[in-house]
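EI: anyone free to look at a 453-residue chain?
SC: sure, send it
EI:
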Amino acid sequence: MTASERSNATTRLSRRTIASYAIGSIGTGGFSTLPGLVLVYYLTDTLGVTALVAGILVTAAKVWDVIIDPVIGGRSDRSLAHTGSRRRFMVLGAVLLPVFFILTFAVPAGMSPVVAGVWVFVAFVLAATAFSLFQVPYIALPAELSDHYDERTRLLTWRVVVLTFAILLFGAGGPALRGLGGGSTFLGYFLMAVVAGLVIGAGLFASSFVAKRGLVPADAGASVSIRENYAAGFRALKRSQPFRALLATFLLQGLATGIMLAGAQYVATWVLKSEDAVTYLFIALIAPALLAAPLWGVIARRIGKERGFTYASILYGLAALSLVGLLWAPGAWVYIPVAVAGAAYAGMQSLPMAMLPDVISHDAVSHGEGQAGTFGGMWTAGETTGMALGATVLTIVLAIAGYAESVAGETVVQSSSAIAGIVVSFSVVPAAIIGLSLLTLRRYRLRKDTIGR
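SC: here you go
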């Protein structure tokens, strides 16, 4: 960061900067939500892929994402050093993502489950790679846009407002678009992918320009090997105790929410007896989140981000646990605890994201600036790991419970054990994981007075 940029960073962020940054969450929220909601279900109930294999395919694609995130983080830092901006990575990801996203859901009808599974895997790997090109530098930007504790909370609060809107838009709108296929499940998924892919790409592209082009430092230095990119990431993880605690907490919570996200369509179809119920589940989840996101920002300013994060996590865990009642009494009451979980989820997203720039700045005091991309790469890898394992855990539970896969147009009946597996994976399992995340969160020791601003 140049001297002039550092001076500007200590002032109040402009509305334009906040809006430009937040709009990127239309794309990041869309890509994180829609595949997590429908991809496993697409594989098992349209392409005829078995539940366990579907989970393996989705997880393997995410594993690749985890592998490349630290490399992209290191390369993004080098790009900042050489060009004064992280923008080119973000633009490239924004342009490529819609193409590969559409291909993921463009499997022609009549393909065997094996070929169809391979098609989806390859296309989704490429889409995830494009997403990382944008997401990793995007995560790094808040530490460079402001060095003020409360301004980062303000920046990330409005990002999460847009993020929750995107979750509603894609979580409810995606299945609705799928239903416009005129009786063809394959056409419905393709239509959904085209519209969603273009909206995602537009959001990412518009936000890319918040990474303004600055002055190139005189000591830009030589290129760094891929091995050194990994080494830098693990050094950051090793030396920063607050980063380890925060990342472990966010990973576990990503696992819990990933399980629930992947399971929502199964709950709608087999527990609530309506595929369309997934739309109402997302409305119940996101409407309260839109209202609660600014409230969590107020709470954080009064009691601290870490305490607010703890309260949000406890509230989410209790709401998830209450959903076990679906085992005995499935019905419309489910929308009440889902709404409570939605309000809590807003805090679980905005507060740790606002804490990450604090961690980066705390580390920069003793280890130098210009490493936000390295932290962002490790953070994105951890987040991706949690969400990927969410789909894996769900499919393992479904496989153990005896879930029966099907192809489009085929009618199947699920056993009572399969239904129970769906409910348990949507309630007890994520609640237990949230409980574990509270243990790692207790180890986060940064406070406003230790950061200094």
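EI: The domain at 13-451 is CATH 1.20.1250.20 (Growth Hormone; Chain: A;).
SC: 👍
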